[in-house]
Amino acid sequence: MVSSPHEAMHRIFQEYPGLFSRVSEVLGVDIPPPTSATVLPTDLTEAQPVERRVDTLLRIETRDEGPFLLAIEAQGKKDPRKTKSWPYYVSYLHNRYDGLPVLLLVVCQDHATAEWAARPLTIGLRQWPTLTLSPLVAGPHNMPVITNVAEARKDLALATLAAITHADNPDVGAILKTLSAALREAPETIADPIVELTAQGLGNRPAAQQWRNLVAVDTSFYTSFMSEEIRDEGRAEGRAEGLLMVLEARGIPLTDETREKITTCTDPQLLRQWLHRATTAATAEEVFVEKH
């Protein structure tokens, strides 16, 4: 199953195609600045019943060296199957797009996977490789740790990718705090996608909750789906506490099971119904009984 960090690590390049220019600069690769970038179909399936899809595919235009194809793969762990699929992607794209140069970028979130992905892939004999593939790899080993708000504000897309690739960094709290502060003055059209991509990229790591807490500090800056979700969570927590107070004030006994049912409910509307019933219920059980 494709994870949310996997999606964020390559989808950010679809949202911000110009990001690769800064990433290549960070990685020390001399590539001319793009004049434009076009998102291309990612389906690389041929007539055979084998489906092959690259995560993100961009056509990058440059003024000095012309166009090239940028294939982006998000890699969450070592996968031996990539030794077959990555060379296929590159050769297929080179053929399909009339000989355009193809560059493979692999984005990782841990050092071991990044080190594995950076190893050249060879096809042929040991004495004479017929084809050698050298992926360009971005990960926690070479992406910047951005903890300066001014620096993050200069390039929000790069700061977002850097935060995602450093999701397991012990200092990720400072990184996320910097990114959140940098977004405070950004228009909603810019801030909203970054809030979502960052949340997606952090997945279910502890850092994801840190990010949610930072966003919740002032949700007036964020009207995205995630900020609405945070508001709902806050309303749910408040109603759960109010429900417990009403039941206790009315002297209705509460079991541990009942308390857990109330405190773990995240549906604000359902909690509102329970709270309304609690004002007249004789027992805790009557709070949860649906009336027909």
Topology of this structure?
Blueprint (H helix, E strand, L loop, with lengths): L3 H12 L3 H8 L7 E6 L16 E7 L5 E8 L6 H15 L5 E7 L2 H7 L3 E4 L4 E5 L2 E3 L10 H6 L1 H10 L6 H12 L4 H15 L3 H12 L7 H25 L6 H8 L4 H11 L5 H5 L4
Parallel strand pairs: 3-4, 4-7
Antiparallel strand pairs: 1-2, 2-3, 5-6
Helix pairs in contact: 1-6, 1-8, 6-7, 6-8, 7-9, 8-9, 10-12
Q: Could you list some keywords that capture this structure?
A:
292 residues; alpha/beta; Trna Endonuclease, Chain: A, domain 1; 13 helices; 50% helix
Task: Describe the fold and architecture.
By secondary structure, the protein is of the alpha/beta class. The chain folds into three domains: 135 residues, Trna Endonuclease, Chain: A, domain 1 (3-Layer(aba) Sandwich); 75 residues, no CATH class; 60 residues. It is 50% helix and 14% strand. The chain has 13 helices and seven strands. The protein has a five-stranded mixed sheet with strand order 1-2-3-4-7. Strands 5-6 form a two-stranded antiparallel sheet. Strand 2 and strand 3 form a beta hairpin. The model has no long low-confidence stretch (mean pLDDT 84).
